[in-house]
């Protein structure tokens, strides 16, 4: 088979890979993107419930987890959320802020994928799908790749194969293996932004609450998020749970404040004065769905009786049970449903300005394969754009 020569080969036609390919091609580099999947951009299309939360107005280094929290600063400041918003606007893609600075397409995530494909096409970057890469060899002047679609040679090789989440959408450990082949270490990986599963004693009770969503503050390891939690038939999900899952380690408890915007003790004591004959459940049902209250009281070990029968510290104990609900998940749903993979290629071995491996000339890692993981809310795509853009200026 003939040898195809390119200046730049990008492996992985996801958010980071496509964006980087277009940028490198705009500089006049000949660029090809290789992907083993049949259909590309699967995660973009699924993201944000089909509307792609493509960035966050407030994106900054504080919204990312990494062994080196400073690493992402350079790329995020060289290509910002406003740069990407500018591009989205240039393409006339309508968008809106849903909540907390999260920007979503008005119509469809397809608008973002089509924009990336147009950017590649305009700049002359080509894309080859269903291409398995079987070997990579370093040469003096670049790299040689053996693939199911022939042999390639390139000066710069950009690895944009993402993390391990959602194997159904093409996720693979390829990027980590390439890193290790070239002597770069990989920080241990685990599923992030993922629902919790529960021990049987919790699940058997809480599964009945499936579909109920509550306002909450979820806390673990000195981090907390004020958003909703959602009871499901498998365990616990919702934005606050997904967020805190990235900070949680197996065996730890998560604390939920289920009355995050007020003082439940005060509510209960004033209700006790105003309507002493009211049942506790009746008063709580003013703040929570009735079905939740009926299940929560016995589950939390609380009695339902008229408020006048609560003495001394008893109302405080009731309030504490809701303000400080401690739950020990038995695990997470894992990579099958996780939105992201924590850990990845060690940032200490990459240049934060270019994303090139410090000790391997011409080898770049971008996007989720790198040990930089965003919170829920458009941050992960912003990292894909920012890291892809900086590599695209150099590769
Ligand atoms: P990405 O995973 O997008 O792309 C990797 C590409 O590499 C894929 O095309 C894959 O086929 C290819 N590949 C893998 N192994 C290969 C191999 N061996 N050979 C060749 N190709 C290979 N983020 C956000 O900011 N806002 C949001 O709304 C959402 N929503 C969301 C929903 C769901 C369901 C998921 C799973 C994830 C999100 N995310 C998100 C996270 C976001 O999708 C993710 O962080 C980015 O897509 C990462 O972009 P990358 O380009 O790094 O990897």
TrEMBL record:
This is NAD(P)/FAD-dependent oxidoreductase. Transmembrane segments: none annotated. Residues 7-393 form the RsdA/BaiN/AoA(So)-like Rossmann fold-like domain. InterPro entries: BaiN-like, BaiN-like_dom_sf, FAD/NAD-bd_sf, RsdA/BaiN/AoA(So)-like_dom, RsdA/BaiN/AoA(So)_Rossmann. Pfam families: HI0933_like, HI0933_like_1st. SUPFAM superfamilies: FAD/NAD(P)-binding domain (SSF51905), HI0933 insert domain-like (SSF160996). Its cofactor is FAD. Gene3D superfamilies: FAD/NAD(P)-binding domain, HI0933 insert domain-like, Translation factors. It comes from Aliiglaciecola litoralis. It comes from the Bacteria. The keyword Flavoprotein applies. NCBIfam families: aminoacetone oxidase family FAD-binding enzyme. Keywords: FAD, Flavoprotein.
